[in-house]
Amino acid sequence: MMDRAKKRQALGEHVRQARREAGLTQSQLAERAQIDQGYLARIERGLKWPSLETLYRLAEAVGLPASSFLEDTCLITGDDVCRKAVQAALAECEEDQLRFLLKLIALVREHWPRR
Questions:
Q1: Could you give the 3-state DSSP secondary structure of residue 30?
Q2: What is the average per-residue pLDDT within 40-60?
């Protein structure tokens, strides 16, 4: 199991690779994803976690499903560590964020093939 820092680093590398494969500069991707270029640079260097909304915007901007970023960094697993991390993150969410996440979960379950 990867620790948080390694997961952030792997996610950042995946975002960078996807950006380069899409032929975009950091500035272009940041503009398309409606985020600050400095924030994108910190994501790519593995210093920051993007929110789910930002992750979806980044994925859309490079033409990939957001799940591809998550799969490759071992962020989605069935183990207790992941479940506990999700529960802890949910405990800090506001009501409107929880409603958004419920919709997101419904979409993921609808479109993600079961194993």
A1: helix
A2: 92
How much is the mean pLDDT over the chain?
84
Domains of the chain by residue range: 1-75, 77-115
The pTM score is: 0.63
Helix 26-33 to helix 52-62 angle, to the nearest 10 degrees? 120
State how far the alpha carbon of 90 is from the alpha carbons of 18, 46, 62, 100, in Å: 28, 22, 28, 11
CA angle 76, 79, 82 (to 5 degrees): 55
| CB contact burial 77-97 (16+ within 10 A = b; e otherwise) | eeeeeeeeeeeeeeeeeeeee
Which CATH number is correct for 1-75, 3.30.200.20, 1.10.1740.10, 3.40.50.300, 1.10.260.40?
Answer: 1.10.260.40
Tens digit of each residue's pLDDT (9 = 90 or more) over 24-43: 999 999 999 999 999 999 99
